[in-house]
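Hey, can you fold this?
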Amino acid sequence: MAESASNKTQLSVDKSCRDIGKLAVWSVTSAKPGNGVELLCDDRDDTYWQSDGSQPHLINIQFQKKVRLQSLAVYLDYKLDESYTPNKVSVSAGTSYDDLRPIKTVEMEEPTGWVNIPLQVPELSEPLKAYFVQLAVISNHQNGRDTHIRQVKVFGPRQDTVQRLMAHDVGFVSPEFLMFSVVR
């Protein structure tokens, strides 16, 4: 789904999913002045959010309604950020901050480019559904204290309205519908 990228290349996205990050309200536990939460979603890999404080560093993504989640993609650059680069992150989801469930923990070794984190729960055949997603930076390379994250994208499955209706086997067989079923 996601692959290595730089300023010249884009995140490779499967056509079966869409970016739903713009539907959310984003917040972070801390930020250095000039390196705030808005830089996580600015579609530029030469800017970054920088935390300011003790770990874990948290990125909170809150949606107005329950959304289906497929994956989270994070852009990191060890070559530029060294000890500021996360090496262990965890993703949790739920209805609010108070009932988050851990979904996945990922360890990375000197990542440069996009790191894709699938959010499919093995026990569920359907995509994960949540109002609230939290990305937690547990530790950094070289025991760094603060962290740099250059981009974060949240993806949900794409499903058009016709497919949803057909999945429920809607049969328009009432007399009112049938009288409009033929063209004269």
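Oh, and this one too while you're at it.
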Amino acid sequence: MPEVSTDSLDEQQVRLLAEMCILIDENDRRVGADTKKNCHLNENIDKGLLHRAFSVFLFNTENKLLLQQRSNAKITFPDCFTNTCCSHPLSHPLELEENDAIGVRRAAQRRMKAELGIPMEQVTPEEILYLTRIHYKAKSDGIWGEHEIDYILFVQKDVTLNPDPNEIQSYCYVTQKELKQLLDKASRNEIKITPWFKLIAETFLFKWWDNLPNLDKFVDHEKIHRM
């Protein structure tokens, strides 16, 4: 694996680079584990390194979607607006468990607490709906990028927020109209959004959003959408 200096990067974010992500093949079968650092280096991604991830879309009871703006300390896609929470299950027993994606849903609960300060008891894994998976690749800069099979997770609940400023610089709840305005701003380069959020917003998100009480008909655990 290549050696890349992290001396100029945020100390807290660099510590997270030692976490062990779950390596998978293109059909989401587990093939091993490697550090978050190695999983996010373009040099390794270009050789096919692929890991498991998730994206949470949390809606309140007014059907508004919680967005976050990633902090400028983030190593990949700093300052970008994105969906509620995006991260990785780790290579340890509780998050490796694959039955009904329970390991991924546990990881989502853990990261919503870490990033957004949502108390663990407010959103349990059982309240997180696993919809489907997408496979995408994106470069953040010349060194860092993403190559993930991303589990799409939906939650509808009113929650308490206490974000970690090292993770999130701002957050907001948006209506569909407000999100479309934000996407328009991004298309004019007035703000930045993450590539996975852009892909999901341009394909599936509004259809799912229109059907929040009836999402079961969109559940598809067989197909991996190649984006």
